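Workshop exercise sheet. Pairs work together: one partner reads the sequence aloud, the other fills in the structure field after running the prediction. Swap roles for the next sheet.
Pair: D.N. / O.F.
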Amino acid sequence: MPFALPDLPYPHDALHPYLSKETLEFHHDKHHAAYVTNANKLLAEAGLDGKSLEDVVKETHGKNTGLFNNAAQHYNHSEYWKSMKPNGGGKLPGSLEKALVDSFGSVDKAKADLVEAGTTQFGSGWAWLAVKDGKIVVLKTGNAENPLVLGAKPILTVDVWEHTYYIDYRNRRPDYLKAFVDNLVNWDYVAEQYAAAVK
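Structure field:
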């Protein structure tokens, strides 16, 4: 079963003014679509047809660079779209709030650490909230890498490749990250991911 480009969970213009319709059209319809197309070409060659996306990412890491890069980028982007929603940010579900306080001391510290990770990720990559050893941690990864290959389960994904924010923010990556944390995060989805990760 080949991979498929998921529809955005909201219209292309729904994240305005924090991310523009133009950004989402390029980012989802062109960049993400290309990763899916390339992954499907390489999937058949590797004989991994029928495996789940997570399994393909884990099994190709360090072994099949081309397939890993495209499959992992498909996974990362799919999670990134779900990590956002129109009128995001705001109050966190109680169970997630408690877990963040347990892990970081406060929700504000967790958010600040996530922004710091995204800001200091050199070059292209990602910043994450992930569950590792029962605790929520902040991770940053380069290029296509993600927490799945670091023994962790991602629960929130933020893209810091330049194509993610350059149309709207130019080189102001910290401003994009602050807007993401304050106004775009779908905390209900993050809470669902957290509950599944600790089950």
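Discussion prompt: The beta strands are 125-132, 135-142, 153-159. What would you look at next?
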